[in-house]
Design goal:
The protein has four helices and five strands, in the order E-H-H-E-H-E-E-H-E. The chain is an alpha+beta fold. Strands 1, 2, 3, 4 and 5 form a five-stranded mixed β-sheet that branches. Helix 2 packs across helix 3. The longest helix has 17 residues, at about 40-60.
């Protein structure tokens, strides 16, 4: 299987849940050994994969559909930076700002769950809506 190949679907999906591979740094509280298994290049490698997976998912989301992007990382390089770069490359997508029912979403629509604030593992992400171009 060619992992870099385009997905074999036409743009027909209303929702894609993309739980992106990441460094796992948001789960240090539960898995403290992660800090000993990470290397300086891991963050950049994870970010490259996240960019690629988002681009591939965007190619198969129908107009009006959405990508629910998430990581188990608190690092901005894997969350805010990936989402921001995606939105620059794909102006036909917007962050879907959800109602205030979901408190970890900030006013921009980005999710940031932090262990020291929410008492949970660390997660990040956003809902990216495919709008008409």
């Amino acid at each position: 299987v060619d992992e870099a190949a385009a997905l074999p679907f036409r743009p027909a999906f209303d929702v894609i849940a993309l739980d992106a591979p990441c460094t796992g740094l948001g789960s240090l509280r539960r898995n403290p050994d992660i800090k000993w298994r990470r290397h300086p290049g891991d963050l950049a490698a994870a970010q490259r994969l996240q960019h690629d997976l988002l681009a591939r998912a965007a190619a198969v989301v129908a107009p009006g559909g959405a990508i629910a992007y998430s990581t188990c990382s608190t690092e901005p390089e894997e969350n805010d930076d990936v989402v921001g770069a995606f939105l620059v490359r794909r102006p036909d997508f917007r962050i879907d700002v959800l109602p205030d029912v979901v408190r970890p979403f900030d006013v921009t629509g980005l999710v940031s769950l932090r262990p020291e604030v929410h008492g949970l593992e660390g997660y990040g992400g956003a809902v990216l809506r495919h709008v008409a171009s």
